[in-house]
Amino acid sequence: MGAFRFPRAARMLKPGDFARLRQGSRRIGSRYFSAEYRTTADTAARLGLAVSRRVSKLAVQRNRLKRLVRESFRRHRAQFPAVDILVIARSAAVTTSGAELLADLELLWSKLPPPQR
Questions:
Q1: Which of 36, 61, 75, 111 could hold 28 in an S-S bridge, CB 3.0 to 4.6 Å?
Q2: What are the tens digits of pLDDT across the range 19-42?
Q3: Boundaries of every domain in the chain
Q4: Cα distance between residue 117 and residue 105, in whole Å
Q5: Under CATH, which number does the domain 2-110 receive?
Q6: Cβ proximity of 49 and 34 under 8 Å
Q7: Could you tell me the end-to-end alpha-carbon distance of the chain, in angstroms, rounded to an integer?
Q8: Residue 49 pLDDT > 90, yes or no?
Q9: Segments in the chain forming alpha helices (H)
Q10: How far apart are CA 23 and CA 59, in angstroms?
Q11: How crowded is residue 66: how many other Cβ atoms within 10 Å of its Cβ?
């Protein structure tokens, strides 16, 4: 069960982390989310989230999207390469069911490069 936790080390928290990611990142996208990722020298993947007020004025809706992304990331984190990922929500995600959003995130995760062995 410890592999499915979402520890502080798995989160991008500092502005410098986001700035480094934006400099040399690659982009991937799906219907409800887009993402920027960058390979790192760390041992595990880290997640950053961007759900702006442009997506929804209601904090409840923005927080729902963030919870869904964190949960999906937490479940798949062990399969990811050592990357920093910034997930950006699109406006259409607000009115979509949770199951459809999770399926869309599965598609997004599948577009990440495979882990190096």
A1: 111
A2: 988 888 899 999 999 999 999 888
A3: 2-110
A4: 24
A5: 3.30.230.10
A6: no
A7: 23
A8: yes
A9: 15-23, 59-76, 98-110
A10: 29
A11: 15
Report the amino acid identity of residue 10.
Answer: A
Encoding tokens for residue 20? Answer: 């480094």
Q: What are phi and psi of 58, to 5 degrees?
A: -90, 120
Query: Given pLDDT bands bounded at 50, 70 and 90, which one contains residue 89?
Result: very high
* Size (the chain), residues: 117
Which residues does residue 34 pair with via DSSP β-bridges, in sequence order?
29, 88
Q: Mention every residue, 6+ apart, whose C-beta is less than 8 A from residue 116.
A: 81, 82
Q: How far is CA 28 from CA 14, 38, 71, in A?
A: 22, 11, 19
What token pair was written down for 62? 């923005």
